[in-house]
């Protein structure tokens, strides 16, 4: 597993992590985030490419990710990196959610899954 930090002019402007899974030979792209003041400048794409590079150098067969992002820009970013949308979970419960009546009424989350096949197993 690895963690990368994007630094610009001495400021942390973005982060991303990669967690390897030996059982199915995949890497999970996790926790990608870019400071809102620096979005649209290619930082997220560069961070995503770092994860892909890590996966290829370590002979993983694919990279997967899950996101609750509601902004279409995030989904377009993943697709621009070569990821394919492989499914969605409706009414996803985030860690710490109680699934109370109020949460079910006002806080419905869609969890999207993406996969990028690097090579066949």
From TrEMBL:
It is an enzyme of class 2 (transferase). It holds the Pfam family Acetyltransf_1. Its EC number is 2.3.1.17. InterPro entries: Acyl_CoA_acyltransferase (IPR016181), GNAT_dom (IPR000182), NAT_camello-type (IPR050769). It is found in: Cytoplasm; Endoplasmic reticulum membrane; Microsome membrane; Mitochondrion membrane. It is a single-pass membrane protein. The keyword Acetylation does not apply. SUPFAM superfamilies: Acyl-CoA N-acyltransferases (Nat). Its main location: cytoplasm. Keywords: Acyltransferase, Cytoplasm, Endoplasmic reticulum, Membrane, Microsome, Mitochondrion, Transferase, Transmembrane, Transmembrane helix. Gene3D superfamilies: 3.40.630.30. Residues 1-108 form the N-acetyltransferase domain. It catalyses: L-aspartate + acetyl-CoA = N-acetyl-L-aspartate + CoA + H(+). One of its GO terms (cellular component) is endoplasmic reticulum membrane. GO terms for molecular function: L-aspartate N-acetyltransferase activity. PANTHER family: GNAT FAMILY N-ACETYLTRANSFERASE (PTHR13947), N-ACETYLASPARTATE SYNTHETASE (PTHR13947:SF11). Belongs to the NAT8 family. This is N-acetylaspartate synthetase.
């Amino acid at each position: 597993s690895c963690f990368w930090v994007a630094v610009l002019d001495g400021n942390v402007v973005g982060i991303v992590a990669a967690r390897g899974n030996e059982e199915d030979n995949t890497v999970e792209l996790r926790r990608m985030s870019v400071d809102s003041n620096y979005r649209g400048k290619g930082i997220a794409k560069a961070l995503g490419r770092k994860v892909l590079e890590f996966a290829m150098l370590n002979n993983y067969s694919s990279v997967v990710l899950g996101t609750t992002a509601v902004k279409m820009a995030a989904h377009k970013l993943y697709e621009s990196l070569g990821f394919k949308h492989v499914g969605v979970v409706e009414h996803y419960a985030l860690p710490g959610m109680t699934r109370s009546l109020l949460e079910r009424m006002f806080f419905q989350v869609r969890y999207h899954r993406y996969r990028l096949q690097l090579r066949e197993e």
